[in-house]
Specification:
The chain is mostly helical. It has 14 helices and no strands. Helix 1 runs antiparallel to helix 5 and helix 2 (48-126) packs antiparallel against helix 3 (131-152).
């Protein structure tokens, strides 16, 4: 049964399918982000660490998938480029063949109409005394007219050659920008992945915001590229399923009804190969006639030697052109060129397009994962900042207080009791200075501690000796 959709409608349908997939993907991301924002729940301190690990592993997995997708994309882009250039090479070779056919036909026709006619006219003057020789020259003139008539019946491929040249130029132009666009797309994907890694590593909300915007753009471009690649792969099915039938359908309109397409190889009347057969017979007869004139008329008319040899040389050149035309108009040569073009598209080209489709799917999956993981990372950053803000700066176990003390060493040397020196003076009048007996052992102990440990230790030093204020 025939397909109810035309080729253009089928391609449009594939584009609509990709657009629907893009819409569903964006809808899923929107619903997920809304649920994540609306369903906020308090997390226990011990549950924060597993969530941060989950975000990390999601980012790592998405990055690995993204890198693998870029590698697959590079391979697919290269394969597609190879297939297209194989098509361009085959089209150029076929174009050269068709141009050569027109050139040979035009050159041979000119030789028969101008060069041969001039030689025969001079020979008619030189051999006017012999009627039989004049009859031979008249017969040769008739054969030359028959050759010109057969050559004029050959199809003119100038229009087809012009079409092939324009087609090859258009394909080369599109392929160059397609290859360049995918190369820039690969760079964009790697750049966004790098932004995601830097944003998570440096806990930078600015980088994450930039990554989200670029990630959404990359997600849309990935689905768009998948639609284009799928449509291009399906569009070449006419070439791949039945290339012979496609070529016959495309070239049938370029040839008149009385002529046969050279790919068919039909030898019925009016076909190019049949015209070449008549050309060969006429040319062989003319060569036999000129050989007879050289053998019998040249001894009697020595002045006709130049024209007789000129006719013989012209016939030999026409025979060479005949063999070249026969080889060029053979169905196998042009058929092989077109089959090479179709094979390049159907194998390398379609294979590369399928790899590019896989690349687009992997990029869409990886960036969807990254977009889903970014809000969780954002909440994790906000939770860590809130925990740091809730800490007491005076707490000696607070890492912020340690950093402040490191940057402000003068603050660490302040006493807790501002009046301890005056109180120490007042207390010294109440107690006798009996503690000076242990000053030597204490100083010796502190010196050893400084020597071996780097810092003096006060665990075994009395309160008065370590300079602390007296107990209240």
């Amino acid at each position: 049964a025939d397909c109810p959709l035309s080729p253009s409608q089928s391609l449009l349908f594939l584009g609509l399918v990709a657009a629907v997939c893009l819409g569903l993907n964006l809808l899923f991301l929107t619903v997920y982000l809304i649920c994540l924002c609306c369903c906020k729940r308090d997390q226990e301190p011990e549950t924060k660490r597993p969530h941060s690990c989950c975000v990390t592993w999601m980012a790592v997995t998405a990055g690995l998938i993204c890198c693998a997708a870029v590698g697959i994309g590079f391979y697919g882009n290269s394969e597609t480029n190879d297939g297209v250039y194989q098509l361009l090479y085959a089209l150029d070779h076929a174009n050269h063949t068709l141009t050569g056919i027109d050139s040979l036909v035009a050159g041979t026709t000119l030789q028969m109409r101008v060069g041969l006619e001039q030689h025969l006219a001079r020979l008619n003057e030189l051999l006017a005394a012999r009627g039989d020789y004049l009859q031979t020259l008249k017969f040769m003139q008739q054969l030359a007219g028959s050759i010109v008539l057969q050559l004029s019946g050959l199809p003119v491929w100038r229009g087809t050659s012009t079409d092939l040249t324009a087609l090859a130029g258009h394909i080369a132009y599109v392929e160059y920008y397609r290859w360049l666009a995918y190369l820039l797309f690969f760079i964009l994907v790697l750049t966004v992945c790098l932004l995601a890694c830097l944003g998570l590593a440096k806990r930078s909300r600015c980088l994450l915001t930039t990554m989200l915007c670029c990630g959404l753009l990359t997600l849309i471009l990935s689905w768009a590229s998948m639609a284009v690649d799928t449509a291009a792969a399906v569009g070449t099915s006419d070439f791949c399923v039945a290339p012979d039938k496609f070529i016959m359908n495309q070239t049938e309109s370029d040839i008149s009804a009385g002529e046969s397409c050279p790919w068919g190889g039909d030898l019925r009347d009016g076909s190019p190969l049949q015209a070449l057969t008549v050309f060969q017979r006429s040319l062989t007869t003319m060569q036999i006639q000129i050989q007879g004139l050289i053998q019998f008329a040249l001894p009697l008319f020595p002045t006709a030697e130049k024209d007789l040899l000129g006719v013989q040389q012209l016939l030999n050149s026409s025979e060479t052109s005949l063999h070249q035309l026969t080889a060029m108009l053979d169905c196998r040569g042009l058929h092989k060129d077109y089959l090479d073009a179709l094979i390049g598209i159907c194998y390398d080209g379609v294979e590369g397009l399928l790899y590019l489709v896989l690349f687009s799917l992997l990029v869409a999956a990886s960036f969807s994962t990254i977009i889903c993981a970014t809000p969780r990372a954002w909440k994790h950053f906000a939770g860590r900042d809130r925990d740091y803000d809730d800490m007491d700066e005076e707490d000696p176990f607070n890492p912020q207080a340690r950093r402040i003390a490191t940057h402000n060493p003068a603050r660490g040397q302040l006493r807790s009791f501002c009046s301890y020196s005056s109180s120490l003076g007042s207390q010294s009048s109440l107690h006798p200075p009996a503690q000076t007996i242990s000053n030597a052992p204490v100083s010796e102990y502190m010196n050893q501690a400084v020597l071996f440990g780097g810092n003096p230790r006060y665990e075994n030093v009395p309160l008065i000796g370590r300079g602390s204020p007296p107990p209240t």
